[in-house]
């Protein structure tokens, strides 16, 4: 469903991603691990098409189409949705207004999701203005549920979230991934896919992962079973990255 081919990205003249290759199959959940500064967020931002991420070479293929040069809104229309680490404040734009503006015609009950995420009282507030870290995550999830994409790019969905809310957020992500979108490639398979960045792996208590990648210094150095990878990272850190590169790629 999503394929990244030999992607090289620069920010301000510095190479941040160096020949990244990665695939996310339709209906699968892929996890992206890697140390701080490895380029994980940059990869998600590039996939979504944000400015400042200069694609030097390589391709991004989504549902068989080359989207490398498409704008953010064109990618969103095709079914890509993102939860970023630091979404901007939108002074003067109420959350309710934003949610109804991005709502697509779908069967998902956004009001019910707002209630479930305990976001009803935030609907009249300006988007992200004064929101706590956990509130921002819930607001982002609410927006994603309204957009109803079929490819979820989730950047550390559990960071800054208290232990009780992690369960709510994890379960909501799982439900969203299992919900109906209208942008599938193969209608005979489960549709929604995800590429999730996590350091702690807490979100994997609620979402079943299929494939994992480790990014180090802007390059994919390892791929494999995400739960096994997480265990190895927890016991050995990222020091084994290079060894893994020799062994598994
Ligand atoms: N706008 C920018 N200007 C300059 N450098 C940037 C910019 N955005 C990102 N970088 C650099 O790109 C590198 C990759 O950053 P990125 O945020 O993708 O890392 P990450 O793997 O997501 O890290 P973390 O786990 O800490 O979130 C870092 O060295 C960062 O400083």
- What Rg do the Cα atoms give? 17 Å
Question: Strands of the largest sheet, in order across it?
Answer: 6-9-10-3-11-12
Distance between the termini: 21 Å
**Reported CATH architecture:** 3-Layer(aba) Sandwich
How many domains make up the coordinates?
1
List keywords for this structure.
6-stranded mixed sheet, 4-stranded antiparallel sheet, single chain, 249 residues, 12 strands, 8 helices, Rossmann fold
Short account of what is shown:
This protein is α/β, with parallel strands linked by helices and 249 residues long. It contains eight helices and twelve strands. Helix content is 33%, strand content 28%.
SSE topology:
Layout: E1 2-11, E2 14-24, E3 29-33, H1 40-48, E4 54-62, E5 65-66, H2 72-78, E6 80-83, E7 90-94, H3 95-102, H4 110-116, E8 126-127, H5 133-147, E9 151-155, H6 163-178, E10 193-197, E11 211-216, E12 219-224, H7 226-236, H8 241-248
Parallel strand pairs: 3-10, 3-11, 6-9, 9-10
Antiparallel strand pairs: 1-2, 1-4, 4-5, 7-8, 11-12
Bound molecules: adenosine-5'-triphosphate (ATP).
Adenosine-5'-triphosphate is lined by residues 11-12, 16, 34, 36-42, 52.
